[in-house]
Amino acid sequence: MPRIGPETAILVFATILGSVFEKALPDMGLLNWLQGMQLSSIAIIFLLILAMIAAGLMAVHSIVSGTILLVIFTSIPTGLADLIIMQAILVGWGLCTAVSISSLSIVTGASMFEVPMTRLITWNNFIYVFVGGIFCAIVLTAINPLLMAY
């Protein structure tokens, strides 16, 4: 149990945060503001991916940022299938592992090869994240109409 304690604590924290956020969200005015922006489907997909990557850069665990984004974007009409919203968050989660000093792959690589974590995050990582994010956003945008039809 001691080895999975931190992960369990993060999961419990994210679940509680999501529940509290879901109850408080209507009173915050954020939903009305987002709806007023009338973002297109592709803009929302890019926003989800970018928000996950940005949170990872700030060392926020992806379970926490993903929970918050899911609560927000499933609470308003987006024109996106819930599966696409979830997949955009997972894409952002996966891509942020290449550029976040708190990601398990960076921490493990730094430990195994005895290199500073910051040396494992190179411009190539950022190019990969940029190109991968654009590609995945385009694919998700193309798939969305098929999922919305059912």
Summarize the helices and strands and which ones pair or pack:
Layout: H1 5-28, H2 30-37, H3 41-57, H4 62-73, H5 82-96, H6 104-113, H7 117-120, H8 123-148
Please identify the structural class as seen in this structure. Answer: mainly alpha
Low-confidence stretches: none
The helix/strand order is: HHHHHHHH
Please, how many helices?
Answer: 8
Distance between the termini: 43 Å
Number of strands: 0
Multimeric organization: single chain
> How many structural domains can be distinguished in the coordinates?
1
Radius of gyration: 17 Å
**Percent strand:** under 5%
The level of helicity is over 70%
Q: Please, what is the average pLDDT?
A: 90
Assign an overall shape. Answer: globular
Largest sheet: none
Give your account of this protein's structure.
This protein is mainly α and 150 residues long. It has one domain (5-148). It contains eight helices and no strands. α3 (41-57) runs antiparallel to α8 (123-148), α4 packs antiparallel against α5 and α5 runs antiparallel to α8 (123-148). The longest helix is centred in the last third of the chain and has 26 residues, at 123-148. The N and C termini lie far apart (43 Å). The mean pLDDT is 90.
Task: Using brief descriptors, characterize the structure shown.
single chain; 150 residues; mainly alpha
Describe the structure in brief.
This protein has 150 residues and is an all-alpha fold. The chain contains 8 helices and no strands. It has one domain (5-148).
